Amino acid sequence: MSAPGTWLAAPYALVHGDDSDGRRAAVEAWKARHVDPEWEDFSLTVCAEGCPWPEVRNALSECAPLGAVRVVVVPQAENLLEKPKELPAAVRDLLVNPLPDTRLLLVSRTPLSAGPGRILGAKPFSEWAKEGRVLKVGALDEKEAPGFVESTVRAMGLSLEGGVAARLVSRLGGNPGVLRRALEVLELMTEGRRITAEDVDQATFRMGEQGAFAWSQAWQKGNLAQALVALRQALEDHPVEGPLMLLSQARREVDRVCRLAEARAAGLKGPALTEALGLSPRQAFLVDGYSRVLDRHGAGGAARLLHRVNQADLDLKGVALSGSPAALVSLTLSLARAWAG
Where are the strands (E) in the chain, listed by range? Predict the structure, then answer.
């Protein structure tokens, strides 16, 4: 999915969401629009992780070469966007009235909310959203995800058996990055450039139906030893696609806790609340478990836990060649502690 033209043209913009591939593509497209390749080394500043607002302001204030604009990208801006009420007045003025010949892109690796007291629900970012300067990349809903799979398959020069797109989504969820990487794995497995239901079953059955479920059930019970055993088994059985499925399972569970916080803030109850969490009426009993985690850690703790899942995704990419399980082991510890209290 390409970034909208309005967002790409925005001199000051924000991109957020847990689809790392989508974020990366959006950032590169925005930079291509605003950074002069001939002056990139002198006009582009990429801020460090956790940089404060004063550092961002100083970067924007630096002089650019004659005829070029000063471009600042904050690739991990979560710390700048946590507390909208604490946004310094000078920063608020800067975001409303940008400095001449400057460009700014804020990047959040976690989804941001427009609910009460949240960053997208407060000015100036609420106004940015109305102006099309905020782009979200992340999980697709149940109706959009199969279409995304089908379009990606066509772009890869592959074809699908009937019903395979929906089958893949039901196993992995709607995260575009996870679905895209799973298709890359399936491309290596298939013969004749056609993905069948059997191919999907072979790639996902044990992890989707047994391994990932057993792992998540263990840490949701706070049973760390059992969770680590399930993790080891899953990685041994499926060393390539296994990590993707485990992350997808963890993201789905933690995301539901975050969505529960938003639903509560919106005053949703009963069937409306269950639907907001993406659960069917028969799955309403699961809400109690998510409620216990949210009551124990609060909305902020749930958001930090989702950030922890996204960080594990980044860490896994960094050790792809070595195949180290350290990132998933650390994530398992965090999840077991969060659910056990």
Answer: 12-16, 44-46, 70-74, 102-108, 134-136, 159-160, 194-195
Q: What is the pLDDT of residues 26-63, one digit of tens each?
A: 999 999 999 988 888 889 999 988 899 999 999 999 98
Higher pLDDT, 200 or 320: 200
The DSSP code sequence of 104-135 is: EEEEESS----STTSGGGSTTHHHHHHTT-EE
**31 vs 326, more confident:** 31
| Matching residue, tokens 């895209």 | 180
Please state whether the predicted TM-score (pTM) of the whole model is above 0.70.
no
The enclosing H or E element of 232 equals helix 224-237
| Helix, strand or coil, per DSSP, at residue 195 | strand
For residues 297 and 331, membership in a common domain is answered with yes
- For residue 107, the enclosing domain spans 5-136
Q: Measuring CA to CA, which residue among 310, 305, 307, 315 is closest to residue 336? A: 305
- The greatest distance separating any two alpha carbons of the chain, rounded to the nearest whole angstrom, comes to 64
Mean pLDDT of the region 85-103? 91
The CATH number of residue 183's host domain is: 1.10.8
More confident residue, 16 or 140: 16
User: H or E element: which one contains 149?
Assistant: helix 144-155
Per-residue burial over 145-171, b = 16 or more CB atoms within 10 Å of its CB, e = otherwise? bbebbeebbeeeebebeeebbebbbeb
